[in-house]
Design brief:
Elements lengths: L12 H15 L7 H23 L4 H19 L12 H26 L6 H22 L2 H14 L15 H9 L8 H22 L2 H13 L5 H13 L6 H19 L3 H17 L6 H10 L3 H29 L13 H8 L2 H13 L4 H15 L10 H35 L1 H12 L4 H18 L2 H11 L1 H6 L4 H13 L9 H10 L3 H12 L5 H7 L15 H24 L8 H15 L5 H4 L2 H30 L1
Helix pairs in contact: 1-11, 1-24, 2-3, 2-8, 2-18, 3-4, 3-8, 3-18, 4-5, 5-6, 5-7, 5-18, 6-18, 8-13, 8-17, 8-18, 9-10, 9-15, 10-11, 10-12, 10-14, 11-12, 11-24, 12-14, 12-24, 12-25, 13-14, 13-23, 14-27, 16-17, 18-21, 20-21, 20-23, 21-23, 23-26, 24-25, 27-28, 27-30, 28-30
Amino acid sequence: MAETTKTAPEISEDALKQAEALVEQEEGATHRFRGPWGWAISCVALAMTMFHLYAAVSTVDQQTLREVHVGFTLVLVFLLFPIVPRYRNRFSPLDILLAAASVWVIWYMYAGGDDFLDRSVSPDGMDIVVGAVLIAVILEATRRTTGMIMPILCGLFWLYAAFGASLPSPWTHKGYDFERLVSELYMTLNGIFGNAVEVSATLIILFTIFGAILQSSGAGKFFIDFSMRAMGGKSNSAGRSVVMASFLLGGPSGSGVATTVTLGAVAWPLMSRAGYGKTAAGGLLAAGGLGAILSPPVLGAAAFLIAEYLKISYLEVVRMATVPTLLYYLGLFAMTEIDARIYKLRIVDMGVSESLWTQVRRHGFHFTSLVSIIVLMIVGYSPTYAVFWSIVLAILVSYCRRDSALFPMKLVRALEAGSVQALGTAATCACAGIIVGIITLTGLGLKFSSIAIDLAGGSLTLTAIYTALIVWVVGLAVPVTASYIICAVIAAPALIKLGVPDFAAHMFIFYYAVLSEVSPPTALSPFAAAALTRADPYVTTLQSWKYALPAFLVPFVFVLDRIGIGILLQQPKEGGWLAVIWVSAATAIGVLSIAAATQRHMIRPLGLVETVACGLAGLVITFPDLIDDFVGGADAGRLIGIGVVVLIFAAQYFRGRDMAVSSG
């Protein structure tokens, strides 16, 4: 097929600005000061980066590390994020006052040492004042970076803690006064300075710095060019390039919206020339951006919290995420293959002049730091050490080429950006600590799990569905990280009580928290893609759901299926590694079947009966418990489902061959 020369629509400056505004909505819109004031703020951000790099390879007391991390975060938020958008790029004395208050609070805690922590059971008046100021500035910092929802949620949980004695059973508790709440939330490790802030201070910020280094050295552009050249030459090349590039961009970006915009700015003109419509292209770009959060070795910020909550290594989390990630991208690749048939896509010139081998020879060094993270953890280094030395490696290998070299000022800007990009997540973690502290103090997590189980009548299936809905609803209002933190302490205990392994319960919640990235009204990735392609944002959101749907049924497998944890590369009690291979392969067939039913197309268009049969077969393969009581077990159910898919495929294949013979 000849390459098309159809002119692609140019992405206008207005469209790019709209998309970038949605990135700012997720990451926060910052001041862009110049001159001495801008340099002063840059120095603070650089100091934050250097402190955390130092802490990664030296001995810094954990309490001190958490306090300094929160202190740097608060100061930079107040200096960089305007109180309201219309005051952007304006100096405000109030910002200086809040930054100074943040420094005073952290200094008070640090100077108090062990005596300060020992007073948590009987705080004095100044302790309460300082704690109240800290909580207030954290709420304001979170409002500036992520919006009003998280502070409002904190207020609701505070009211629950204060007036619990007045609530009806089973929500009732003894109630806590102001002094007890303040001391519990900031003078112990159960609240603000708990697990979330620890992970933010030790892992999240280091991986953010790592991503900023990769981005500044040109790794992101190389990954896009590499994907386009590797996937070029076929009618579905544009779609496959988007899928592959989104996976690779998960390292330097780690943000679904940022990946969507970065990739969309390059890929949308190519997709348009290939024959994609505005909505279909936007949906695929958003689904690809979502994959960036799911892709090892970086994953999303919530993945680091899984390791901390479960007290397992981050490498174990990466291992558990491997097969679900492969299944997600298998579904996307299947969708793009079907798209080529549905939209009659054309071969296009991908616009990359260098051959694949030339690209790898000239720029392949960008892969080394991504690989080094996994290698270092496999040989026994902690995640903190692994990412630190990968940062060092990324800086060193950047000098392999002059156009990627991180010369002093470029390196300084990258290091500064690493801390600035972590501010929203760090503020969210501190704010979420308030909610987690109240849940722990009041025992709400255990109460909620009992309520959920009673409501489901003890059914694991219904409890899993309720949990997915709860995580999804929470995710509509708050960022992915906050959604996971809140639901991990509220919803996970219900699944664990019903016999789900703790790691499977937490991975289930993680995946449904990520789904909020493509769920309205906070579906920022589809909205950003729609801004680039000039499509309807809500229709684009539905399209992105269609692309992502098959893989998001996968989490139910490792919660409901007796051998489902095999998808997380954990050996089930029955079957060992053969069961792991069997459930992974069967689920892959289920994902492909559901993808075909969703698109109503396999080799050729599916009729109504074929679509329904294909969809039901995919569900049975994925959830054999639906019919195992009637067919003699889960394995029999899966085999029946696979048999139906094979029959549909064979019918389409032979029907097409007969049509070709008769037309010939």
